[in-house]
Write a structure and sequence with these properties.
With about 260 residues, the protein is mostly beta strands. The protein folds into 2 domains: about 140 residues, no CATH class; about 90 residues, Immunoglobulin-like (Sandwich), CATH 2.60.40. The strands form 4 sheets. It has a 5-stranded mixed β-sheet, with no helix packed on it.
Length: about 260
């Protein structure tokens, strides 16, 4: 689907400093650009993926950037030069995500350097998740249709701006993601429906919900991706928190997972 190709070219599935920028890109003819997808998570994942962008009309295959120098450090003096585990994928053997830590990333390739920093916010616990069958009240449904409703429950901390990224998996396969802020439920007990009309589960399937607490800049990036999916006439790339880059993001976040067997 061409919409997914645009999202892949500009954004990259699976998150910033105070300096962000928005740059128009001609999707039909651009010089190859460095794409950076960097993740540091409290679940132990430290993963930086480097690739090159492609033109809109080219096959959906992104050349890996190999032999780059990828340096990661935190504000407590820990630092590491990451190793390349597979073409374009760099991982850490010692640095993992800790709540409240700020992580600094420097990528050097082809005599160009790209840098960013991101702090892991405080974790908001996920109380529980539920799944139920309810009538389909959408315009596409009729009186005899039903859908599966997934609801997450958590307590939003009062007086703090919080940003959440929920990722839904069926049998460990990612099927949908959702971003939420606390603009209208600051300090409240939250019952949030993860709206997905085409959700399909069979008896015995495992539903996995990951809840990430993310920074405001990561939220902006993901929100830009959602806006891009609407296919505006003059698309722009999502705002990046990586200095000297036009495509990519650096996310340091919490991670909590809950399971349900259907």
């Amino acid at each position: 689907m061409r919409q997914n190709i645009i999202l892949s070219i500009i954004g990259m599935l699976i998150i910033f400093t105070s300096c962000t920028e928005e740059i128009d890109i001609d999707l039909n003819k651009i010089e190859p650009q460095v794409m950076i997808e960097a993740l540091v998570s409290t679940n132990g994942e430290t993963n930086i993926k480097l690739s090159q962008s492609i033109n809109f009309d080219e096959p959906n295959e992104f050349p890996a950037i190999q032999n780059a120098i990828v340096e990661l450090s935190d504000n407590y003096g820990n630092n590491e030069v990451l190793s390349e585990q597979s073409p374009g994928v760099y991982t850490s053997s010692s640095l993992t995500g800790n709540i409240g830590y700020t992580y600094n990333l420097i990528v050097t390739t082809e005599n160009e350097s790209y840098s960013s920093s991101c702090q892991i916010p405080q974790q908001v616990p996920m109380d529980s998740i539920t799944i139920s069958k309810v009538p389909d009240n959408s315009l596409r449904g009729n009186s005899n249709d039903s859908i599966l409703k997934v609801t997450v429950f958590y307590k939003d901390p009062e007086g703090i701006d919080n940003y959440y990224h929920f990722i839904e998996y069926r049998n460990n396969e990612k099927i949908k993601s959702y971003i939420i802020n606390d603009k209208f439920n600051d300090g409240l007990e939250v019952e949030r429906n993860l709206n997905y009309r085409d959700r399909e589960l069979e008896s015995g399937d495992t539903l996995k919900i990951e809840m990430r607490c993310i920074s405001a800049e990561v939220y902006e990036y993901l929100d830009d991706l959602n806006s891009l999916s609407a296919m505006s006439a003059t698309p722009t790339n999502p705002r990046t928190n990586i200095e000297n880059a036009t495509i990519g993001y650096f996310s340091a976040h919490t991670s909590e997972i809950k399971f349900l067997v259907y």
